Task: inverse folding
C-alpha cells in the first residue's frame, strides 16, 4: 500500500519545520515587468506565466513543504494554460515539493469520476507524465458523497488526498454557510440547530473514515478547507473534526495573521497547513519589500516566502 | 446592448419547437468501435473524441436549439481535451447551435473572476477564436454571491447566461440539499423551515434581478439547474422562481420521462430546457435501436435525437 497522503504531508511539514503552503495564482498583468510585453498573444502570455511559476517553485522548493496551484489562473489561458499547469506540477515534484491542485470541482457521481481521472488518478495514457498529477486536490462536496467518492477512492488507492470545502474564506460565502442562521430554532431539548458549514464538517469527517485513508499519523487523507474566523467557532469546528487535516486559506493578502490560525491546529501542533498566495508571489509589488531588493523580484519573493514560512512555523509547537 | 441570453435561448427553442438540449459527455471506451484503437496515446484518443463530438453536433444542429458540453469529459484528456472543447464550441456555433459549457465552477470572488475569463467572457487575446466561448455556463453558487458575480456581470455585458445549481439530479445530493431535514423546527408561527435547496433557489432568483439580465421575454439570464423530483416540490420551486429559466438534468439515462419534467415549465410552456446526454449520444449501444441501423451509429444517434426532441416538444404547449 502507498503511504497515505496525510502522512506524507505531515512528514513534509516536519522536514521543512513549517506548515506554510505557497499558493500559485498567476495573473499576467501582475507579472514582473521583465516578463511582460504589450498585447501578448495567448502563446506568449502562457509562456511568461509558466516561466514566472517555475521561478516561484524554485524559491518555494527549499522553504515550504508544498505548493498549491490554483486551476482557474491556468484555465484563463485556455488549453495552453492547462498544459502549463500539468508541466508545473511535474516541475514542482522534481524539486521535491508536494503539490495541491486547487480545482474545487464538484459534480454528480458520473461526472466526478471523469474529474478524478483528469486531476488525481495516475494517467491512463502512456504519453502522459505520471509526475504531472497533483498529490491532492481541493473539492466542493455540495453534491454529496457521490460527488467526492471517485476522488476518495483514488486517494485511498494511490496515496493521494483531497481537501473538501467546509468554511470558505470569502465573507460572501456566509450567506450560504451560516444557513439557516441564528434565528433558526431546533426541536426542543436538542439545542441549537447546526449551521450549514457544521453539517458539511460532519459529512467530510465521515467521508474520511474509510479504509486506506488513515495512516500511521492517525490523520485522514480526506481533509477540509477551513478559513479561520472567530476563535470560538473555529475551535469548535476543530474539535468536531478530530482526524481531518485542514488546508487554511485567508492568511496574508486575505487578512488573517498567524495567531488567528492557531485554533486551526490541534493542541499537539498538527492538523493544518496554511496557504498564502498573493502576499508571497507578488511581494515585488509591495513598496516596502521592493525598496530592499530594487528590480530583483526573485529577491522580494524569497524574502516574503522566508517571512511567511517563519511566521507560521511556531504554530507547529503545542 | 446585446440580446440577453434568456431571450436568445427562448428564440432558439421556439425556432426548433423543442426544449431539448443534447448533452455531450464523451467517454473513450464508449465510442463507436470504428473510432477506437487498442491502447491509444492521449493524442489519438483526444482526436477520436473530437471526431465523435463533431458527428454528434452535426446531428444535433438541425434538431435541437442547444448542446451542452460537459467539461469533465474533456478535461479527462488534459490540455488536449481542453483544446478540443474550445474547438467544438466554435464548431457548434458555426452549425447554428447555442452552447452551454457545463463547468460547475464555484470558488471565492478573486478566483471566480479568472474562471469567468476562461469560460464566459470574450477572449482577451487576439489569437483566440471568440466563437470558441460558450453562450452560457453552469455554476455552483455555494460560496455565495461573490462566487457568481463575475459570471453574472459578464452575462449582462455580453448577452450570455449562467445556470446555477439549485437541485441536482443525483440522489446522493439530498444529504446536502435537504438540510436541515424534515425534523428541523421553525420559529413558532413561521411554518416549516426552508430546506437548503430552497435557500439556494431564493439566492439564485435574487441574483437574476439585476440590470441587463432580463430582456423582452421577462426571463432572466441567471438560470438554475433543477432536477425534476416529486411534482409537488418541483412545482413549488417553479413558483418560487418566477423568472428563472431552468436547465433540467435527469431525463433519459438518469430516469426521468417527459411528463415528470412538466412541473419544470411555467403554465405558458416557457421556462425550461431539458438535457439528455447518454441516452442520445450512445444510442448505438442500445440493442433495440442498433437492430434498426446495423453498424450505422450515426443513424442510431439521429433516431434517438429525433425521439428525444419530439418526446419533450409537447412540454412547450400550455
Result:
Amino acid at each position: 500500500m502507498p503511504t497515505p497522503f496525510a502522512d506524507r504531508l505531515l512528514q513534509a511539514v516536519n522536514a521543512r519545520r513549517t506548515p506554510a503552503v505557497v499558493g500559485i495564482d498567476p495573473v499576467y498583468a501582475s507579472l514582473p515587468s521583465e516578463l511582460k510585453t504589450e498585447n501578448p498573444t495567448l502563446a506568449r502570455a502562457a509562456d511568461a506565466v509558466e516561466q514566472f511559476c517555475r521561478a516561484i517553485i524554485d524559491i518555494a522548493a527549499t522553504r515550504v513543504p508544498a505548493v498549491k496551484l490554483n486551476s482557474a489562473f491556468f484555465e484563463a489561458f485556455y488549453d495552453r494554460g492547462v498544459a502549463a499547469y500539468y508541466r508545473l506540477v511535474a516541475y514542482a515534484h522534481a524539486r521535491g515539493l508536494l503539490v495541491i491542485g486547487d480545482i474545487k470541482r464538484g459534480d454528480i457521481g458520473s461526472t466526478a469520476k471523469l474529474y478524478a481521472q483528469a486531476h488525481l488518478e495516475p494517467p491512463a495514457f502512456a504519453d502522459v507524465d505520471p509526475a504531472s498529477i497533483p498529490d491532492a486536490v481541493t473539492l466542493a462536496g455540495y453534491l454529496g458523497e457521490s460527488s467526492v467518492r471517485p476522488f476518495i477512492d483514488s486517494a485511498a488507492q494511490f496515496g493521494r488526498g483531497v481537501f473538501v470545502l467546509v468554511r470558505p474564506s470569502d465573507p460572501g460565502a456566509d450567506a450560504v454557510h451560516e444557513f439557516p442562521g441564528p434565528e433558526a430554532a431546533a426541536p426542543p431539548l436538542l439545542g441549537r440547530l447546526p449551521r450549514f458549514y457544521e453539517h458539511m464538517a460532519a459529512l467530510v469527517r465521515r467521508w474520511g473514515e474509510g479504509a486506506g485513508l488513515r495512516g500511521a499519523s492517525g490523520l485522514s487523507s480526506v481533509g477540509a478547507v477551513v478559513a479561520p474566523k472567530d476563535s470560538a467557532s473555529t475551535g469548535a469546528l476543530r474539535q468536531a473534526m478530530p482526524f481531518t487535516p485542514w488546508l487554511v486559506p485567508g492568511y496574508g493578502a486575505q487578512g488573517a495573521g498567524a495567531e488567528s490560525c492557531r485554533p486551526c491546529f490541534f493542541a499537539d501542533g498538527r492538523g493544518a497547513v496554511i496557504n498564502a498566495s498573493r502576499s508571497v508571489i507578488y511581494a515585488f509589488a509591495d513598496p516596502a519589500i521592493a525598496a530592499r531588493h530594487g528590480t530583483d523580484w526573485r529577491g522580494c519573493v524569497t524574502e516574503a516566502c522566508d517571512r511567511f514560512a517563519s511566521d507560521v512555523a511556531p504554530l507547529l509547537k503545542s
Summary: Strands of chain A lie at 20-24, 66-70, 98-105, 136-139, 161-167, 222-226, 246-248, 272-276. The mean pLDDT of chain A is 95.
